[in-house]
Amino acid sequence: MADIIRVAAQSRSTAVAGAIAGVVREQGRAEIQAIGAGAVNQAIKAAAIARGFLALDGLDVVCIPTFADVEIGGQERTAIRIAIEPR
User: Fold this and answer.
1) Which of 30, 37, 59, 80 has the CB geometry, 3.0–4.6 Å to 54, for a possible disulfide?
2) Tens of pLDDT, residues 52-76
3) Alpha-carbon distance 79 to 87, whole Å?
């Protein structure tokens, strides 16, 4: 299983998209995780941009969102995790 790409509200969506595309090319799938509305916004934009990058390589990818409970600083938080894999 690949490492999870963590996305923050301040993340540049194009940089995250490049990371997603690189991981999908290398490992066949990628997973991104975001906590909070701003981070989820950047994650979704990055997924859309990565889809375009990968389409140039003939790869058609889909996004599969799920919830994940994560612990940060002793506190339980709910994250959105998005798996990105070929259709």
Assistant:
1) 59
2) 999 999 999 999 999 999 998 999 9
3) 24
